[in-house]
From TrEMBL:
Residues 349-362 have a biased composition (Polar residues). Residues 327-368 are annotated as: Disordered. This is Uncharacterized protein.
Length: 368
């Protein structure tokens, strides 16, 4: 019996999902200098002190919260956070205020995007909104009503899974907030990748819609220059380190080597951990992501390089380094630097790539 082949881009999509969770929580947590909450692997989230922002989730759980109160709340009691007795009044206020609604709405959005029944409803809404947008009849305020159908479908599906009344677990204010998040995601994706939505456009509006392709391509081409990337990373680090990490992952994809890198990581994880396929997010990868949250530009770039060097992929590490710092600056050691000539270096890298992919492939279970 053959082993399942690793799905391309699996790790990259999981990392993006985790980063999106962290980024949205950061928006509602207030100042970056204050305590904040992070999502755990099972979908809950935990309060983390600003002093330990760079600690891994495992260390935080083991060392930071001894003797503190654990509060469980939210739809299906899927959320938790820890706080001291002095923090309890503020915790109650946060639990009863906007942050509570925002957290539940984020959970609903994640459920809609990852469950079959509500996702089908979401795709129907997206198809309708895309046609309206192509016909110049799209209204961003009225679009929320359409995405409310997807939010309600997700709420009903969530209640069916965990039990309870869907309209009590997700009040109208929360569903409205989730619908606005879904609308914002849709509009951002259309602006970035309009070609992915051309299949929904009526043929009489297709020529006008295709103009978006060239405009979006020009925007992406401008954003891939080194100066623009450095500007974006520096600017986003000022207000949102999670967005900077997300941009670092985008650089891996822009470099053109992301598919091979995450595929090799996926194979390596399956080889080392037989139960890997049952884990929604690899704990080692999750800890690595949490460890650089709130870090500076060098740490974010180092994470991108380490992610590639984990499979000894030096050439891709150099590619990412050049995107961040330019081709003339060598911030991190290059194992092929020095006496190895350029042509020998390329040959060595190609051999390394082939060897790594062979070594990382899980052993075959086919009967002989």
């Amino acid at each position: 019996m053959r082993c399942k082949k690793a799905k391309p881009m699996k790790h990259y999509r999981q990392l993006r999902t985790l980063v999106q969770r962290l980024r949205r929580k950061n928006r509602t947590a207030g100042s970056s200098a204050a305590d904040y909450e992070v999502f755990t692997q099972d979908g809950s989230y935990q309060r983390v002190s600003a002093a330990n922002r760079a600690a891994t989730l495992a260390d935080t759980t083991a060392q930071q919260h001894p003797g503190q109160t654990v509060h469980v709340w939210g739809p299906g009691e899927q959320h938790l956070y820890c706080c001291t007795a002095e923090q309890e009044p503020q915790a109650q206020q946060r639990r009863a205020g906007f942050d509570t609604d925002a957290s539940i709405a984020i959970e609903l959005v994640m459920w809609v995007n990852n469950q079959q029944v509500p996702y089908r409803q979401l795709q129907a809404v997206i198809k309708n909104m895309t046609r309206k947008m192509a016909a110049n009849r799209y209204d961003t305020e009225q679009a929320v009503k359409g995405f409310m159908y997807a939010a309600e479908s997700g709420a009903k599906d969530y209640a069916a899974e965990f039990g309870g009344q869907w309209h009590e677990m997700f009040p109208k204010s929360v569903r409205l907030m989730a619908a606005e998040m879904l609308r914002d995601e849709f509009e951002a994706e259309v602006d970035l990748n309009p070609q992915d939505y051309g299949q929904h456009v009526h043929k009489k509006h297709l020529p006008e819609w295709e103009k978006r392709y060239s405009q979006a391509a020009s925007t992406r081409a401008a954003a891939t220059t080194t100066d623009q990337l450095l500007t974006d990373v520096t600017h986003q680090l000022d207000w949102n380190p999670h967005a900077a990490l997300d941009l670092a992952l985008q650089v891996l994809s822009i470099a053109g080597h992301g598919d091979d890198a995450v595929d090799a990581l996926d194979l390596e994880a399956q080889h080392q951990d037989p139960d890997y396929r049952q884990q929604p997010v690899n704990p080692d990868i999750q800890d690595a992501v949490l460890a650089v949250v709130g870090a500076d530009l060098d740490a974010v770039a180092q994470f991108a390089v380490d992610l590639l060097q984990e499979v000894n992929w030096s050439k891709m590490a150099r590619t990412v380094r050049e995107y961040f710092f330019g081709p003339d600056q060598q911030r991190y050691p290059d194992p092929y630097q020095g006496p190895v000539a350029d042509n020998q270096r390329d040959t060595a890298v190609a051999t390394t790539q082939e060897t790594v992919m062979t070594q990382n492939r899980p052993p075959s279970r086919r009967r002989r």
